[in-house]
Amino acid sequence: MARGRGGLAFAVFALSAQACFAARGDRAYWDSVFNAPVQDASAAELRLEYLDAARRLDMARSPVERRRAQEALDAIQSRAEILILPRLKLRPRLADRAPIGAATVVDARGPSPEILPPASPPPPAPPVGPAAPLREPRPPIAAVKPSGYEADASAAARKCARLSRSAGARGVDTLVIGFEGWTAFDSLATRAAYRYQDAVASGAAARKPGRTLYFGHVVHDLMIPLVDRYGDRFEFIVFPEWTSRGGGSLPERCAAAWMRSPAGPGLAAGRSLVLIGHSFGGDAAHELAAALARRRVPVAAVYTIDPRPRAPFAGFERPANVERWENYYQSWGLAGSVVGGADVNANLSRWGIGHGSLPAAPMILRSLSRRLGRLLAPPERTASNQSEK
Prior knowledge:
With 389 residues, the protein is an alpha/beta fold. It has 11 helices and 8 strands.
């Protein structure tokens, strides 16, 4: 019996050592890829993401932290196979994932990171007719979106300005800003949702982000289903609830940058904002709407889900700049609040829904999806839907 246990322990040790050396070999390959001289802003941002994820993996202490860091690293490497490898003509990790037109050599020692000569191009096809105009491709946007944890607030605000300009070049006019509740924001899960939208937009194989140890209700219950339906026809940013505090907060600056016209300080025609908040995030959405009212910036819709005021004895009132406000709350345990002047104040307690499960209520997603669909529809279609408010 002791020899059996010893053999099992040795087998587990051997498998662990083999996996460790395989991962280290893989890291060496990707280090050489990301150290290649590529003069491109998106590739440089992807390299910074890779270095940050590799640092998180090296510093991880628990199995859960290592798993999450490895998943983030795998997602970055998958994006690099689309963005960087075709430009460098590098050998990929696996033969069946080689970029089109690149030579692939696999031997017993594994893939090599050296640069190969490009294959001769196929002969051009005879012209058939005038080429159809192509939509400008969506660049990787995940690295442009701020998280609220940046040490330099001005640099984070500049990210929002870059996001606004990139979306304007692609004809995207709607931004959804979400706020998670107290301790419910998970930066890794939020980044995974951003990368998921990038992958869906590029047509690449995308794995839907799963739930983590944190909650992430706004991301998982609302944002990811909206991405599944509308792809990259809208942009979204999710913040922790505390980022809305104080004048000139990062969410306020991001919203103002989105609504500002590229040609001047005036408002851009056709652009719209949607705010979502759960729990204390509902208070953050209310605070942001009030701050935008002082700037005279319109808000197309606000959805508060079981909002709870962060200040004692405080309440919620709809500002005049909000076109539509829908509030959903419950009275069990951590009870939510009513919003004065809201178009909808729906108490969902009779459905047995609690504070944590309220964002997953199907009626909230249906209403939000319909509202977003009206904002994304052409003007001739939305004109006939004004009476449905």
